[in-house]
Write a structure and sequence with these properties.
The chain has 215 residues and is of the alpha/beta class. It has seven helices and seven strands, in the order αβαβαββαβαβααβ. It has a seven-stranded mixed beta sheet with strand order 3-2-1-4-5-7-6. Helix 1 packs parallel to helix 2. The N and C termini lie far apart (34 Å).
């Protein structure tokens, strides 16, 4: 069971894909996990349940911060919940595992919302407003041998994420691929995505992937 304040991204296909990838990682009492763009906190909860010694959840949204805090306590898990912008609150710390399900949906323009439910998915015209920053920032907070698990859409440049992470010295592969039908947001943007050449006419499915990058 999860509680969720209005305006917080609900756990969906991408959330569960990240949780499934998390299950493949060996976590123990010495493991330090960082959950970026925590949302409801479901991935933080599952990391703590899997035996991670320390879990830190970060989200810029006040409502997501509060929702994560409530859900970790509801499930009886000790998670440090921090409000802040990506890795800024944990600068100088090192983690064995970083997980992230950021906004990645291509939007009408490059203005990133600062409030409202669209903040949960709008990520600039190319969908990379946060993905680019994550690819650049996360290597600095990964311990040697540390792992990043990052979920994103094929509409927001899988190859670019792979290239950026490899340029930071990480070894990257795709550990999960799932096809899901368009939800209301993408369905409403179908014509825009067709015009941009992102999707084909009549396309109604999106591919989600989980990237695994090792330092």
């Amino acid at each position: 069971m999860l509680v969720r304040l209005p305006g917080v991204y609900p756990a969906q296909h991408d959330s569960w894909a990240l949780v499934e990838a998390l299950k493949q990682e060996a976590l123990g009492p010495d493991s330090r996990v960082l959950d970026l763009c925590a949302g409801t906190g479901i991935v933080s909860v599952r990391a703590a349940e899997a035996g991670a010694g320390q879990v830190t959840a970060v989200d810029l949204s006040r409502r997501a911060w509060a929702t994560t805090w409530m859900n970790t306590r509801l499930h009886g898990r000790s998670v440090r919940v921090v409000r802040g912008d990506l890795t800024e609150p944990v600068r100088g710390e090192r983690f064995n595992l970083v997980v992230s399900n950021p906004p990645y949906v291509p939007a009408e323009n490059d203005r990133v919302p600062v409030s409202g439910i669209a903040r949960c998915w709008d990520a600039g015209k190319d969908g990379r407003a946060l993905l680019d920053r994550i690819c650049l920032q996360v290597p600095d907070v990964l311990a040697a041998g540390g792992v990043l698990l990052l979920v994103q859409s094929s509409f927001s440049g899988i190859e670019k994420s792979q290239t950026m992470l490899e340029e930071q010295g990480l070894r990257v592969n795709i550990v999960s691929r799932i096809d899901i039908p368009f939800g209301p947001v993408l369905a409403a943007r179908r014509d825009m995505l067709v015009q941009r050449g992102v999707i084909d006419v009549g396309q109604h499915c999106e591919e989600l992937v989980v990237l695994r990058a090792v330092k």
